[in-house]
Amino acid sequence: MPAFDNRHRRLTMHINKVHSVRTLALVARDLGEDVDWLADIAIDLEPEDGLIWVYDPEHPDGTMAFSEFGIESLRNLIEIHRSTTK
User: Which superkingdom is the protein from (predicted)?
Assistant: First the structure.
């Protein structure tokens, strides 16, 4: 939500620094992983972890997408899941 800055008497806004995201399907392909498996382990990620939901006519319920930070978070989850299932 915009806030009023009395010092400069102007409107200030938070600007999102994420300039691009990659969909779950693209990340799965790039990492050589199964899309459904990645979706299962990524479901607990939050926006703070780099998970972004994208909605469009083909995905009215949304599809997962990840910022660069989100892809790193996902890679960490992959390592954790692989180390605990061995």
Answer: Bacteria
